Heparan-sulfate 6-O-sulfotransferase (Elachura formosa), 171 residues
Amino acid sequence: MEDRSHKVLLALVMLFLFAVIVLQYVCPGTECQLLRLRALSPAAAADPYRAEDETPARFVPRFNFSAEDLLRRVDFNIKGDDLIVFLHIQKTGGTTFGRHLVRNIQLEQPCECRAGQKKCTCHRPGKRETWLFSRFSTGWSCGLHADWTELTNCVPSVVDSKKEVRLRPSR
């Protein structure tokens, strides 16, 4: 019986040590964020840019979009001249989002993606022109990580070069 109580005591001590080590990884500072009740208060949740230690925020948002702006509905005419241009910003989940655009969007004619190919074909219904301008549909047409300036110069020239002059939409 004494041997069993020693094993139980040893197991409890080992569990305690394991919990202390895990707590050090989860909460390395002197004040553990998980244990602070003040972080759960409504005042802290009201302003997501407020610093936890009440110091002035280093990040101040420049664009305060309203809920209406963020939830607005955009009509996309796949049969017309509408074009989606995907601007990939590095390290923001853009690769995953770009793959989602070509694989999962429910449209009248979704992109055709073949196994083993990096590019998918995103043509308009009944036409041989693309409705999506991204690395997953047109490749690296404007460079590896084209920024807004490069895209505004590059996209019209790439898209217009593939159309006859009379068929080009006015932009």
Summary: The chain has a mean pLDDT of 76. The longest strand covers residues 84-85.
